[in-house]
Amino acid sequence: MRSSVFLLCVMGISLTQIEFPTSDLVKQTCKRTPNYDLCVKTLLSDPRSSHADVAGLAMVMVDTIKAKTIATLHRISELLGTTRDPKTKAALRGCVELYDNAVLKADLPSAMEALKTGVPKFAEQGTNDAANEADSCERAFSGVSPITSFNRNVSDLCRVASAIIRLLL
Ligand SMILES: *[C@@H]1O[C@H](CO)[C@@H](O)[C@H](O)[C@H]1NC(C)=O
């Protein structure tokens, strides 16, 4: 009895010490994107990546972009509540148009649909458009944007997604 408890403890310790290797497909895929570290970090934070094919990895990226887009819209709406400067307010409202009407309601759903139906060309276009919209939002501010890191993160993720999707063409 005592020895089996001991054995279980030893097994428990060794199991927690096993390092699961980064999946080869994730590594190989991310090497062909413009941002290896962001790509690996993003894919490995979603359990679906461990048994996904390249199209599945692209879907994980698109879902991540969607979550970041929603977080960006939240931040914009907070800022709209506190910003007094009319130029900044106008730029923020323009960004809502870009992120809500374009990225969230058009680009990402069409990219996802295209991945599901096996038409990667349209998925590539959706993610490229989304990257351009994040960049346009950033350029809408004269001087410093209050949401630079949001815009940059969305844009970077879109470019990684687009590169993954190009592997499917
Ligand atoms: C942008 O990405 C960086 C690096 O992953 C992270 O540290 C930062 O918190 C992100 N910013 C936002 C606003 O999500």
Automatic annotation (TrEMBL):
Molecular function in Gene Ontology = enzyme inhibitor activity
**Membrane-crossing segments per the record:** none
Keywords of the record, alphabetical order, are: Disulfide bond, Signal
The source's domain of life comes to Eukaryota
| Signal peptide boundaries | 1-18
Instruction: State the InterPro entries in the record.
Output: C/VIF1, Invertase/methylesterase_inhib, Pectinesterase_inhib_dom
In terms of SMART domains, this protein maps to: PMEI
Q: Where is the Pectinesterase inhibitor domain?
A: 21-164
Q: Which family does it belong to?
A: Belongs to the PMEI family.
User: What is the protein named?
Assistant: Pectinesterase inhibitor domain-containing protein
User: Which organism is the protein's source?
Assistant: Vitis rotundifolia (Muscadine grape)
